[in-house]
Design goal:
9 strands
Amino acid sequence: MIPISILDLTPIKQGGSIAQTLAETLELARHAEALGFHRYWLVEHHNTPSVAGAATAVVMAHVAAGTRSIRVGAGGIMLPNHAPLMVAEQFGTLAALHPGRIDLGLGRGVPCDPATLQALRRVPGDAAEFPRDVQELLFFLRPAAPGQKVRAIPGEGAGVPVWILGSSAGGAQLAASLGLPFAYASHFAPDQLEVALAAYRGRFVPSPYLQKPHVMLSLNVVAAETDEEARLHFSSAQQATDAALPPPIADYEKTLEPQRLALIRNAFRHSAVGGPETVAKSLKDFIARHRPDEVIVTAQIFDHAARMKSLEILSRVSSPARA
């Protein structure tokens, strides 16, 4: 049996609001908890009209306070945007408020436009310091050494599990070298999945954090009562840009030029979209092929009730896939 978790992209929908998104996020997290999902992770995006998750630690606090047992994590904190000390303090605070329930996933993030980079007080090329920043953060999360001049209070000795996130072999190699768990963004970056898995598993060095490789893979999942209904809801994700999430369009793929359709199908090739039997088979095949230790699923579904229903169906069909 492998755990299945939820990655909430906190979508702002056309005609919706940030307040609505965050209210739906908490309702979905409670639903996921009741259904027995393992983790509920949240994202960090800046200057993105389609995403409400900019202040990730704040949204995590909202979700963790409104739930009781599900693990709540960052999927993830884009470390080049932050001082490692402040991340340690934020997650140490969350861990103190919600002991044993907080995860910290760390990523480089996607390249920002110059104006957003400046607004974040970043400089071009600073993402190259990501490996050093990760090690500095790990240092602050350890129990403080005697005479240590700078301490993360709270944060030191908090025991927050740290994951490395990646969409290429670079993140995999860093996770392997530090002996940390690795989460790969196969839901939007399918092309380097095999290379990244081989790099992580082949180069893994046991550490005080982890004795053997541990991989979590993301997967787009849209489940409905029928394949046709699921494809309708999936069309919102297929249309998605940085603008607010659009409503679904019936037979959306038929409206596309062949080249555009091929690009979309390639980008979303790690997806389970359909009725219960279709989703169960797709999930089982994905696990059998890539052998993850965990799967984290995401879905850009416009209708909130359909999104809740998708989780219910996934919960029902996922047990056979975990065997």
